[in-house]
Amino acid sequence: MQRKSPSQSKEIYDSDKFVRIIKSSRYFRNISLDNLKEILCQGEFVSLRDGEYLMHDKQFKPPELIILLEGSLVVTSKNHFIMRLNHPGDIFGEMSIISDNPNSYADVISEEDSLVVIFPKHLFKVSEEDTKVSIVYYLFAHILAEKLRHITARSQLNNSTRLNKEPIPLIGILDSDKQSRKKIKSTLEKIWINSRVIEINSYHNFFEKPFENNFDFIITDPEMIIRGSSQKDEIRNLIEICSSHMAPMLVISQYCEKLKNRQFLSELGVTDFLTKPFSTFDLQHLLSKFRKDHYILQELKNVEIMADTDRLTGLANRRRMDEFLEAIFNLFPEEKQPFSLIIADVDQFKQYNDAHGHQLGDIILASVAAIIKKCIRRGDLAARFGGDEFVVILPNCDKENAVLIANKIRVDIAKDKFKYQQQQLGKQTCTFGVATFPEDADTTELLLKKADDSLYKAKSDGRNKVIAVKPL
User: Fold this and answer.
1) Which domain holds residue 72?
2) Which end of the chain, C or N, has fewer beta carbons within 10 A?
């Protein structure tokens, strides 16, 4: 492994090659070429051969931010895959800068000849007396903002897969002591009747597939689950994985007997402890608290869902649609997956309303919405756009498949038996316009306009049709 400071590697950072390469990545696309070049000049360039380690598990190194310039790196922990950096501009180590903890819980291995630039922790420090921040600090703030934008966008997309009925809470018990698991499970079944409990008896079983189950609540004994070891890095590793489930955690362990251990767990974000051996009463008391907090959180989520839902149709409202569209647009630079948009309009809806009244008109809108929901995929978003117009947003969907989905909706609506649909103007039908990003537009506003233009053309051509934007 060769490490070169800027003064030793003038031939690298004087070249615009890497600046231009990483400029297109999502973290750096909004940073000017001059600023980006100045930033790279302050890092340390490290070249790696195929199979060479940049970092070893348990090899304590000071916090560093790593940016991939070329090649490919794989990050593993305990011989299990964590992530891969294989696009110029990919980053690693930002959390160690924030937490001020060494990069000591992972192996970082080069999968081919690679080049990275490394920024040590001290470059990101700003004192209270400083009136200006360094350009590297500016980069770090920009990276964190992009990360937050990405996490928020991903959360917005995931929210579109909400279930119609409240799911049964899933509780994980991570403890190698069979008797302890039995006692905890027995108490849970009395306190939290409508819950599902999964027992995990070894650290290895949990670490091998940490996200196989999406836990709502985790109970663990970190000392037992790692076979008696009480090393801080092992316990930290386990707690961090548990915390990544974004679920409340209860630690029940002899490890909690000492104040310094409870303080250490508290620093890791654990708020509730119970020392072994424990009384049934104390466990019941804590579980009752967690159960109450869980259902309060569920109520808050239900209120949030109601705020994002059109009351008449049960589809997403305009606000939710705008958030979802912005989220999928923000994820495109990284995922490079096309997405499509369908606009649907109920044909001759005004005449139907005038002939039969608004109550039956509302039934038509609710019925059309139900058919749309039935025809779309899990992860798609259907929204009421306003009046008698609907929008369907289709992530990871090209134009050909979007047209197929639109036609499926169109046919099912035309076949449905609506009340009083046999009017002078014919059966109740819908007309559709389809547009795809980035093929047809480079902004969400233009995408909506292109789909709306296609809808207008389909209306002019006789209605009950699907028309997609034609390529130029």
Assistant:
1) 2-156
2) C
Domain boundary among 307, 333, 353: 307
Q: In the 8-state DSSP scheme, what is residue 121?
A: G
Among 244, 278, 307, where does a domain finish? 307
Q: Beta partners for 342?
A: 392, 434
CA separation for the pair 462, 459 (Å, rounded) = 6
Distance CA 391, CA 341 (A): 7
C-alpha to C-alpha distance for 472 and 469, rounded to whole angstroms: 9
Q: What's 167's DSSP letter? A: P
Residues 191 and 302 in one domain: yes
In the DSSP assignment, the letter for residue 55 is E
**Non-local CB neighbours of 55 within 8 Å, separated by 6+ positions:** 61, 103, 106, 107, 108
Which amino acid belongs to residue 12?
I
Tell me the H-state helices in 100-195.
Answer: 135-158, 178-191
**How many Å is the Cα radius of gyration of the chain?**
28
Q: How far is CA 171 from the centre of its chain?
A: 22
* Count of domains observed in the chain: 3
CATH number of the domain to which 262 belongs: 3.40.50.2300
The token pair that represents 370 in the structure block? 């139900």
Residue 163 pLDDT > 50, yes or no? no
Q: State the CATH number of the domain containing residue 151.
A: 2.60.120.10
H or E element that contains 65: strand 64-70
Same domain for 329 and 301: no
SS3 109: strand
Q: How far apart are CA 401 and CA 394, in angstroms?
A: 9
Tell me, yes or no, if the pTM score tops 0.85.
Answer: no
Cα-Cα-Cα-Cα torsion 163, 164, 165, 168, nearest 10 degrees, comes to -10
**Residue 389, phi then psi, degrees to nearest 5:** -110, 145
Confidence of residue 404 (pLDDT cuts 50, 70, 90): very high
Cis amide linkage into residue 210, ω under 30° from 0: no
Question: Would you say 448 and 341 are in contact if contact means Cβ atoms under 8 Å apart?
Answer: yes
Whether 399 and 340 have beta carbons less than 8 Å apart is answered as yes
Cβ-contact 276, 180 below 8 angstroms: yes
**Quick check: 176 and 224 in contact, CB under 8 A?**
yes
Tokens (6 digits) for 324: 């979802």
Residue 109 pairs in a beta bridge with 53, 74
Q: Judge if 281 and 364 occupy the same domain.
A: no
DSSP letter string over 411-437?
A: HHHHHS--TT--BTTBS--EEEEEEEE
Say yes or no: 146 and 192 in one domain.
Answer: no
